[in-house]
Amino acid sequence: MSMMPGTGSKVARFNAEQGAARLDAFLARHAPFGPASGLYPENPANSAETGRKQGSVLGRGETLSRETIKKLIRAGKVRVNGEAVLSPKAPVPAGAEIELSVPAPSSPLTPESGPLRILYRDAVLAVIDKEAGLTTHPAPGRPEGTLAHRLLLYFPELAAAGGPRPGIVHRLDKDTGGLMLIALNETCRLALAQHFAERKIFKEYLALVYGVPKPPIGRINAPVGRDPAHKTRMAVTASGRPAESAYRVLYADPAGHFALTSVRIFTGRTHQVRVHMRSIGHPLIGDSLYSDPRRAAAGKRPPHPASDRKLPYPFMPGRQMLHAHKLAFVHPFPEALNHAALCGQALSVAGAGDGAGAGAFCRVSCRSTSLSVAGGDADAGASCRISCRPTALSNADNGADAGVALRVEAGEPELRFVCPPPADFTDCALSLARRALRVVLTGSPGCGKSSLSALFAEEKGIPVFSADRTVAELYEAGGDAAYLLRARYGDRFVPGAGACVDKKVLGDAMRADAVLHREVEALVHPMVYHALEAFRTECDELGLPFAVAEIPLYFETGGKHDKEDVVTVGVHCPFPIRRERLLRLRGWSDAVIAGMESRQWPEDKKTAACDVVADNSGSLEDLGREAKRLAIFLNDARAARDAALTRMFAAFWDGREVRSGFCRERSEGTRGQQGPGRNAGA
Length: 682
Fold this sequence. Notes:
The protein is an alpha+beta fold. The chain is built from 18 helices and 25 strands. Helix 9 crosses helix 18 (about 620-655), helix 10 crosses helix 18 and helix 11 (about 465-475) packs across helix 14 (about 515-540).
C-alpha cells in the first residue's frame, strides 16, 4: 500500500491482465484482498505477486462495498491508464493499469470514556455486554454519551469506518442491556449484516412480564409499525413490517401475577419484544411506554391489563425488564478467531474447581463432551459462556492439559454466548417471586391453636389470620354469611332482617342434619378462603416475611387446593387433656365434643399430614418455648425457600434448563415430626 503525501488517502494499483466488463465489478473483486479479509484477487496465480507489490487498499481485514466503489468512481477517485473514469459501467481493457484512491474516512464522533464489558474480541469483531440505560448510537436529542462514542475509545480502528454508527450491526433499546455484536471493519459489518438479513444469527432475550402467558410456549407472527395513535410508540398494525417472535415461559408465578419468559426474535423490528408481548396481553414489567405511563410516572405499580390486582412486591423497576441473554453466530472469518482469548476463557473456568465457575468470566466448550475444553458442564455456574461447534474447535489432549492451545481444524466455528442479566433484573425477579411464606396452624378442637398463634404473633410481631374469627364476623348483623343464610333458610337461623346468625340454633341443626351441614359449609367456606387470600395478598404487599393463618379445618375443607406451597403446623394435644379443657373452658358437653370431633380428620392423620408438629400437652410456659422454636423453624424454612429461588433463577441466568413452576425443596425427614426439629422448606 502507498500513501499519497498530504492527502490522507490510501492508494492501490492493479494490473487488469484479462480485463473486465465493468469497472465497479472489477474493483469489488480485486480491491479487498488480504489474508485477514477472507477475500482474494480473482486470479489466484497473481495473488501473491499482487499482494506483495501493491498491498491491500485498506487495513487488515477490511474491504469496500460495491456502492462505496461506485461513489469513488463518480468522484474521480479511479484512473484507468492514467485517465480518470467517472462511469462505474466503463469496461476495463485487458492489460490496463488501474489506480484507486480511497480518502481516509473520519468519524464525526469523538471517543468518550466509560465502562464497557468486552466478552470477546478478535481482529474483525467483538461481543460486548451493553449496560442498560446506555443509548446505542446518536439520535436527535442524544448527540453524545452513547455506546458508539464509547466504542471508539476501546476500538480506535472504528474511526476508519466513518458515519454516526461505527461498529453497530444491530441495536438494543436504551433501557435494554445484554449481548451485542460489534463489527470492527466494513468487511465484517457487511458479512454480519447479511447474516442478520438471512436470519442466521440467534438472539434470545429474558423478559419479566405481567401475568402468565398461555399456552406456555408460543409463536407471535404479527407486523410491527408506528402506532398511528401514539407517534412515540410502535404497535401491531396491518401496515407494519413483518415481525416474528417465539416465547417460552421459564417460571410461572403460582398466583399468576408474573412470569419469567425467554423470547427469541427472528426479525429485528423496533421494540419488537415489547410490542409482541403486549399484543398477547403480557407487557413487560417496568415498561412505562407499553403498560400504563400515567401510573408508572406516579410511582404506582401498574396492574396486569386483564386484572385490577397489584403486583405483590414493593420493588418498582425504573426500566423495562428485558435483557439480551443469548447470542449465537457463525464466525464470518474463521481465520480471525482469537485463539488465545478463547483458550484463556475456557481455562479460567476449568480452574475454578468446585466453585461452579466462581470468578470465571467466560467459558469455551464443545457440544461433543469428548472435545470439551472446560470439562463438560462442571462450570455451569459461569457468568458467561462461549461454545464452538465440535467440528471447528479442538485441542490436542481433550482438555486434559491446561496449557494446550486451541486450534481451528475445519468447518464453520459457531460462537455461542450466554450473559446473565444485571442486578436490577435479578432483584426484580426475586422480589416478585419472594412472597410471604404461607403458614397454616391447624389441629383438633381444644389443642391450643389460638394460644400458639397468639404467642407466635407476639414473638414475630406480625398479624395472624383466624378462620374462626372470620366466620364470627360473617355471622354478625349485616355480614355476608348472615345475608346468604337468611336468603336460603328464611328466619330459621337469622331471626330478622339485619339480625345476626343464631349460632347455637345453627350449630344444633348442623350436628343433627348432615345434608344441612354440607350446605352451610358450601356457603360459608368460600367466603373464608376469599378473606384468607386477601389477607395473604396484603402480607405480600406489606413485605411481611410470613402470612400465618389459624385454620382448624384446613385439610378437611380443601387446603389441598392451595395454589402455593404452604408450611402446615399441627398443634398436638392428647384427647383427655383436650376434653378437660373443652368441658372447663368452653362449657361443651360430651355430645358437642363428639360432634365436633366427627367433622374432623382423626388427630393422628392430621398431625401426620403436617410439616411440623408443636406439642401443647404441658403448661403455657412450655407452649411459649414451642412458639420460640417454631419461629426458628419457620425462619429456616423461609431462608431455604429463598435460597431455592435464588438457585433456580441463577440456573436460568446461566442458560440451563430448569423445571418450570415453584421450586419446592424439602430436606430429609418425615411429616408429623414432633417439635419444629426439621427444615420443611417451602
